[in-house]
Amino acid sequence: MLVLEQINTPGIAQLSYLIGDSGAGTAAVIDPRPDCGVYLELAERHGLSITHAIETHIHADFLSGSRALKSRLGGEITVCVSGEEDPDYGYDVRRLRDGDRLTFGDVTLTARHTPGHTPEHLAYEVADGDDVDNPWGVFSGDSLFVGSLGRPDLLGEEETEELARKLFRTMRDYYRNLDDGVLVYPGHGAGSACGADIGDRPVTTIGREKRENEALDIDDEDAFLKFIKEGAPPVPAHYPRLKKVNLQPHDLARGPACPPLSVKAFRQRSEDGDVQLLDTRDMLAFGGGHVPGAINIGDRDELSVWAGDMLDPDRPLLLIAYDDGLIPELVTLIYRVGFTRFAGYLAGGMTAWNNSGLPLAKVRELTVKELNERRGDVQPLDVRSDGEWGSGRVPGATHFYVGEMRDGSLPDLDKDRPVACYCGSGYRASIAASLLKRGGFAEVINVPGSWGAWKKQDLPVEGGE
């Protein structure tokens, strides 16, 4: 009997799959994440032995988990990757090409070369037994999403146009020729930066995508190229790095260690100069008092994405959390985007720091109404993306996308005057505020609720429609 489980990894909106046959007792994991215990638990529940880990392509947004899964299973599985375009893998793999098949009891997977998001990308058709000419589903990886498609611009401008043209042919010559009833199991859901405006349904059909996905309805190649250039979110900084990392061996089957540190040891380690201080409490707690020099990225699912985008993987991390019991999950969220160096965490959190009488830095808050009243003496700073900025902003605001601050760049504002950071909700604004504070701005202010609250209060808007 068929076993098919979809595993959604929140924050990075990554979808992986366990597929197999309970009668044969064998299964594969498609596009596993690095914290791979979930697949072992599912396999045990269904009485399956995982024999293969399959990568649809070289991932850019998360640390591929096939090597960790192989390590957890004692090396007794085959890691399958794309052999198309001959990528230079640095570890032991089985290279599959267009038309190659894998069988798990009465389940057959057939590799299909679907380039565009990446040159080597493979999708996998799934069919019953020997009826391989009539697939009932396709694992589309990062080529076709619900209402969207994989972006072709992650390898740099010099390769974008060629990949975009390949993506056009993949949509026209492969996906549009599949039967309408074929189920599509994508590699990402809503919220991923691997595609623009991905829909929130976990599964779709070819017929539905033909009706509703504009990318499948464009017959002219140049019109297709123009279409996919519009609406793509900014490329996170960690994507090019993870492309390289995922070509190399890494064996942290249970994730990296993060030891507890006393206040004294934490402070000494923080003064070494080679570490990064990450405070994962929410913006209000961070603003009320934090260790000087810390960056604030709150403990939410999207911590993975923002840690990957804003932090340096070559510098060890010191963590601060609400509660020591949260540390394992925080480490997992950060590990998913390729961070393996943790110097430790502050045992007892900020309570221990405060009880030691050590210095605190602070970030004030203003409500949106207070910001509107003080626009004459406070410098509003919009840290949203270009598209968000263009749709409307606080009158008189300066625009500087938070992602551009990762390398130490800061907006050209008066450091001696108050700066009020805002984004969509306040989450990104708190990241920016912590960086401005560390960068020497005298008075930094965060705006809880930010643009969402501004709109709800019907305050003045500049720009937009």
What's the layout of helices and strands?
Elements: E1 2-9, E2 14-21, E3 26-30, H1 37-46, E4 49-54, H2 66-72, E5 78-82, E6 94-96, E7 101-104, E8 107-113, E9 122-128, E10 137-141, E11 144-145, E12 148-149, H3 157-174, E13 183-186, E14 204-205, H4 206-212, H5 221-229, H6 238-245, E15 260-261, H7 263-270, E16 276-279, H8 283-288, E17 295-296, H9 303-310, E18 317-320, H10 327-335, E19 342-346, H11 349-355, E20 364-365, H12 368-373, E21 379-382, H13 386-390, E22 398-399, E23 419-422, H14 427-438, E24 444-446, H15 450-456
Parallel strand pairs: 3-4, 4-5, 5-6, 10-13, 15-19, 16-17, 16-18, 18-19, 20-24, 21-22, 21-23, 23-24
Antiparallel strand pairs: 1-2, 2-3, 7-8, 8-9, 9-10, 11-12, 13-14
EC number: 3.-.-.-
Domain Rhodanese: 271-362, 374-463
Enzyme class: hydrolase
Which properties best describe this structure?
single chain, 465 residues, alpha/beta, Metallo-beta-lactamase, Chain A, Oxidized Rhodanese, domain 1, 3 domains, 6-stranded mixed β-sheet, 24 strands, 27% helix, globular, sulfur dioxygenase activity, Metallo-B-lactamas, metal-binding, EC 3.-.-.-
CATH class division of the largest domain: Alpha Beta
Residues in helices, as a percent range? 25-40%
CATH superfamily of the largest domain: Ribonuclease Z/Hydroxyacylglutathione hydrolase-like
CATH topology of the largest domain: Metallo-beta-lactamase, Chain A
- Major beta sheet, strand line-up: 1-2-3-4-5-6
| Shape category | globular
Q: What is the typical, i.e. mean, pLDDT?
A: 95
Strand content bin: 15-25%
The structure class reads alpha/beta
Number of beta-strand segments: 24
For the termini, the CA-CA separation is 54 Å
Overall CATH architecture of the largest domain = 4-Layer Sandwich
How many helical elements? Answer: 15
What are the segments in which pLDDT stays under 50 over at least 5 consecutive residues?
none
How many domain units?
Answer: 3
Rg from alpha-carbon coordinates: 24 Å
Largest sheet: 6 strands, mixed
